């Protein structure tokens, strides 16, 4: 799962949001690292809806413009939970390797740092 998709699903996990709400929430969740443009977002939302991960919750008119709210489906919630677990396993593996003394392999042998 690509990071923008993960963040879009995460944004919708708490409550239904309209497009601009998703954009703002993704910006907050990623601390500004992921910036979604409207065209990118709506393309992603269409794709996620086709996959059954999100669906339209409701539509309302605000200042003469249609505002569409999206929500996470149960399939989307399950996909997000699976991705969270996968990322957690990867982060745990990385953290364990960082704690290992440098220059030692998993089997205790010392590496010489010779380029191959």
From TrEMBL:
Keywords noted in UniProt: DNA-binding
GO MF term list: DNA binding
InterPro entries per the UniProt record, alphabetical: Metal_resp_DNA-bind_regulator, Tscrpt_reg_PadR_N, WH-like_DNA-bd_sf, WH_DNA-bd_sf
Protein origin, superkingdom: Bacteria
All residue ranges annotated as the Transcription regulator PadR N-terminal domain in the record: 8-81
Alphabetized PANTHER family for the sequence: PADR-FAMILY TRANSCRIPTIONAL REGULATOR
Protein name: DNA-binding PadR family transcriptional regulator
Record organism: Actinoplanes digitatis
């Amino acid at each position: 799962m690509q990071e923008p998709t993960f963040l879009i699903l995460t944004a919708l996990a708490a409550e239904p949001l309209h497009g601009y709400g998703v954009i703002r929430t993704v910006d907050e969740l990623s601390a500004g690292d992921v910036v979604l443009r409207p065209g990118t977002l709506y393309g992603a939302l269409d794709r996620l809806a086709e996959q059954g991960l999100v669906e339209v919750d409701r539509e309302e008119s605000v200042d003469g413009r249609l505002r569409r709210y999206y929500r996470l489906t149960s399939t989307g919630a399950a996909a997000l939970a699976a991705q969270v677990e996968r990322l957690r396993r990867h982060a745990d593996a990385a953290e364990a390797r960082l704690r290992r003394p440098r220059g030692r392999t998993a089997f205790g042998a010392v590496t010489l740092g010779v380029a191959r």
